[in-house]
Structure formats: structure tokens, C-alpha cells
Amino acid sequence: MAIMRAATAPRKGWIRTFFGITLGRMLKWLLIAALLLALLLAIAFAIFVYWPTRGIPNLQRIDDYLTLNQGWGEALDSKARQTYYYSGQGAVMPQGALSSPLRYDWFIHLELPLSTDRFAAPEHMRRYRFIVDPQPSAANPDHLPVGFTQHFDPQRGERMLDISCAACHSGEIHAEKDGRRIAIRID
Known about the structure:
A hairpin with a 4-residue loop joins strand 4 (148-153) and strand 5 (158-163). The strands form 3 sheets. This protein has a 3-stranded mixed β-sheet, with no helix packed on it. Strands 2-3 form a two-stranded antiparallel sheet. A two-stranded antiparallel sheet has the order 4-5. It is an alpha+beta fold. The protein is elongated, with a radius of gyration of 29 Å. It has 2 domains: 14-54; 64-186, no CATH class. It has 6 helices and 7 strands. It has helices at 2-7, 14-19, 23-54, 79-86, 104-109, 122-127, and strands spanning 64-67, 94-95, 100-101, 148-153, 158-163, 171-177, 180-186. Helices cover 34% and strands 18% of the residues.
């Protein structure tokens, strides 16, 4: 019976197996794990950052702006038109799944991935086909798209980003005449 016990090898538990690994083998597995993690991060970057930005349309140049006479005034910067475009109406822009409002200062300072360019820059917002006035105005000093407004939230003590009716109920047709691109604003 004593001979039988000596012939069978003692069972190793997972702790004994883990601590029985040589340093070289452990470094090899750590290197493989680090390479796999780096590969997964590169794939995640490509899927969530690089690929979505490749699908954004190119910026179209606009040479002239034209407004139709719809009772707002003839100019883009007429008081009635600016009031319609940039007056907050309480429709806050939700942030994430919690539907808490997005802070205005966060939005205007948000940067593009791998860049110091602002996400809310007029050129970038126009690439998403938002309507942006050619110049900032007193009603829109941060030069945001039509319908992007703000209100002060006394509970948070900060300005919050709003979306007004003008964001969806204003349009712009781009037409070309004599080699010049004209943006025709329809409110």
C-alpha cells in the first residue's frame, strides 16, 4: 500500500500551479496579453473614433447668403430673425442616458478627437448640415448653429444648452449660379 502512494504524483492545485510558473513563462504571457489588449484598443479606436469621423460630409463653401421675405426682415441679422433663432424655449439638450441637461460651457469648449479644434466650430457644425450664420451676433456670440440656445439653470448655477424650434423649422437651400454657391435661407 505504501508503494502505491509513492507511485501516484501529488495533485497540484491552481495556486501551486500558478506559483510554479517560471519568470520567463510569466513574462511571455504578460507580453502576449499586453499585445492583445493593444490590438483590442486599436480596433476600438478605429470603430468608435476614426471610422465615424470618416463619414462626415465635406464642408461646402458658401459665397453669398439670401433670405426670403417672410416677415422676419430682409437681413440675416434682423432682430426678429435673431430672436426666433436664438431665444431659449426650455427644450434642453439631454446628456447621456440620465437625460440631464448638457452644460452650455461644456458644449462650446468640447474638442474633436485627436485635435484641439472645437466640436461646435461653425465649419464643423456645417459639415453635419446644421445651418450656421456667417458671423457671430449679439444673440449668438459663440457662433452656434441656428436653434442652439442657452438658458440659466438656477438649481445647477450654470448655463444649459437648449434646442429651439428654429433648429428643425429653418432650412437652407444651396444653389449655384455663375460659379457662386448661394445659401437661400427659409424660416
